[in-house]
Amino acid sequence: MTDDTIRAIAESFESAREVLVFAGSGLSAESGVPTFRGEDGLFSDEAIVELARAGILEREPKRALEWYEKGRRRIREVEPNPGHYALARLSQTADYTVATQNVDGLLERAADAESVELPVHHLHGSLDRICCRECGAEADASLDLSEMPTCEACGGLLRPDIVLFGELLPDEAFDASARAAASADVCLLLGTSGLVYPAAGLPERAAEAGAELIEINPNPTELSERCDTIVRGKTGETLPAIEAEMPSS
Ligand code: APR
Known about the structure:
CATH topology of the largest domain: Rossmann fold
Number of domains: 2
Helix content: 25-40%
Strand content: 15-25%
Largest sheet: 6 strands, parallel
Bound molecules: adenosine-5-diphosphoribose
Distance between the termini: 20 Å
CATH architecture of the largest domain: 3-Layer(aba) Sandwich
CATH superfamily of the largest domain: TPP-binding domain
Number of strands: 9
CATH class of the largest domain: Alpha Beta
């Protein structure tokens, strides 16, 4: 990443009024959370792809719930990385909205640590929330899903409150993200391959509404050719570098 590019991005941020952040698993990679694709991604194991598909919680609830409880434990053991913290602080320089595909809650933890308010819309849900498979009621998040707890309201099996392939995205999160895309001056694509719709359609909506698209990712993605500025780098290094260039920093 060249200093000129970083300076140019810092100037875009400085002049932006509304910023939409479209985040993917790469933003959490430097926290030790595995991404899905790429040579060491979770989806290199077909068994894990199957666990991410709708219907698995009906077909093989025990195996699925044990896997997701493992994931819940893992996100409690990792910490936000410098990219999360820098993003939380940068979000105070304009009206930021985050549309995240991540389910790890690390960005919110960084925002809490920085005592900043940051609207984060979870397009694919949150691993740290659980709900009833039948009635959808939210349940006590401290329960251990591998013990197959049931819903107090209806007796249905509890599940992680995440969106599996083939399931519908939460309307409220998607609609709020789409509204932000329609008015953003800048859309920041952080650590996402841009492969999964309808979430990956949000940067396109922002571009059509006139936003500058800025991608930060070590690798090319499905959305790269739509981007105005590209930094082939890690978010954990690039976001702090941008923050350091901000005149207000
Ligand atoms: N900094 C920035 N980007 C990174 C980093 C890093 N340190 N490390 C990896 N990346 C990039 C990779 O180059 C890749 O483009 O992060 C991206 C991760 O892509 P995916 O693994 O496909 O993850 P994501 O885009 O979040 O997947 C979208 O697909 O599997 C479903 O629901 C799941 O929300 C997920 C969705």
